[in-house]
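Appendix B, record 7
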Amino acid sequence: MTESLFTRLEPLLAQVQKPIQYVGGEVNSQSKDFAAAEVRWALFFPDAYEVGQPNQGMAILYELLNACSSAPMPVGEQGDDDWLLAERTFTIWPDLAKLMRENGVPQFSWESHRPVRDFDVLGVSLSTELGYTNLLETLDLAGIPRYATDRTAADPLVIAGGHAVFNPEPVADFLDAVVLGDGEEAVLRVSALIRDHKRQGDAGREQLLLNLAKSGLVYVPSFYDVSYLPDGRIEAVRPNRPGVPARVGKQVLLELDEWQYPVQPIVPLAETVHERYSVEIFRGCTRGCRFCQAGMVTRPVRERGIQTVGTMVARGLAATGLAEVGLLSLSSADHTEIAGITGQLADRYAGTNVSLSLPSTRVDAFNIDLANELSRNGRRSGLTFAPEGGTDRMRQVINKMVSEDDLIRTVEIAFSQGWRQVKLYFMCGLPTETDEDVLAIAELAFRVIETGRRAANSRDVRCTISIGGFVPKPHTTFQWAGQADAETVNRRVRALKDKVRADRRYGRAITVRYAEGEPGMVEGLLSRGDRRVGKVIEQVWLQGGHFDGWREYFSYQRWLDAAAAVGIDLDWYTTRERSQDEVLPWDHLDLGLDRVWLWQDWVDARNGGEVADCRWAGCYDCGVCPALGVETQIGPTLRSLLPLTAGSEPVSV
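Structure tokens (predicted):
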């Protein structure tokens, strides 16, 4: 087993940008006894350290695996406190990666600087499809074969999770296994199966994967064969091993209060994109926005109680010294106790430098009392809302049930109470969208400025419009929709920007930010692609492509050339509308959503029909709750396995 690579790495760091990001040793990082551990995870985020380190999912799993002194063991058996550990690794920036290859230094972990190939599992957190090429880059730098079929017992299992693997088929050939859904319980059970397999001796890599697949915890792509029709569509996806389920379900954590992580998140030495202590106050969303994959795949809604949130905030701030608390979820203002949470936290930290923040807030969930609580310590940087569509008609299509008048009333209250900046998020390229729908965004922004100036009795008000290209996602109402091509998206957003600039009354008070349409086309290919798309990803990487989420490294032409080289028609995967009976690449992955219900919602969308939030309006049979049996509680066996804070008594805010 290789010792630390740091003595070979250190001389290279003086030649690269931001060398501090590679040295490890951050506050709250953990270095357990590597030799004593039976199961070792290298948790990998396929992006730069500054992006990956603040990732909430990775922080939770890192702490959970390292804290798990009583992880799953046979009943009555006492386990070694150090049998399980986790370290971190990230995609190396190109300047250092080049030097590492030249000097024979492989991909390393941040804690012990050991080769990643020495670990049992490379746990990949894939949050965006544009990180797929970074996965190949890191596998290569680590000396791990790209294709799962080429790996041996000397290689770690490559197990992926995250929102970008709810359709893992484009990277299926590169992954040994996939965890769908919530990872907390799954990583503990997967670890126990790996440990038991190692204790039994050399039973073979395939037997371990078979055990994992039969457990229902993971999807093993190599155990499924895909057949195709003459026109290129999928005929069927079938298991090729006995005992492997025909459909693989997602993992769902029903009781968030039982899993109070992170407790002591790492405080980075280098600058990162977010520097705050984040608490996920609830998971899931039933608002039913038809474009939103996160809302669909994380159902049902599960809340953390007010006492648990207070406990986590108190511990997290004490452990980190951070001065900002992020109350995270897909729609944080929808928490049933949000007023109590923000009010009590604001009381507790009144007079300190601690500030509270929410992600973008729904217009119909916003109220001025909530905003005032969040800004009680004097920080009023601005309010953020996400209308998503430029007209009431478009918002009906996407089931974003707020009107233009609702937004104007909300910003009027905000500006009258002292706010001076509003940010509005929109999408371009939505199904049934016209040029006029996009240009209407400008008229809406003009009304915002006009209303703000009147309410504030001042011309010193600002509005930022942020526009992203719409990409249809698997497991959503729009999974059958054709994607708007890059030229259409670019033409519409540029026309919008020109309209704003040309307005002499309000244009100077409005900032327009937008993404070009080309990265969205690549994301669309990867989002709804099948296994054949893996050859495109590989070809892009072989031609030097990675860090595709960074503008300076993204090359649309490289993707076009790669697709042409392997015979993939980009438009067939992106702008083509799917029929109801087409087998989709992810249909064998069961997230509980009823396919018939999703199709009917797609029909309703084109007719402008709206669907209310089932938490308040009653069940409309999406299928998730019956599939999951939401009345099920965490049983006594699993409860006994929870490490550290998992069963702790919450304290009052």
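Remarks on this record: The chain has two domains: 6-223, 276-515+592-622. Confidence is low (pLDDT under 50) at residues 69-79, 631-653.
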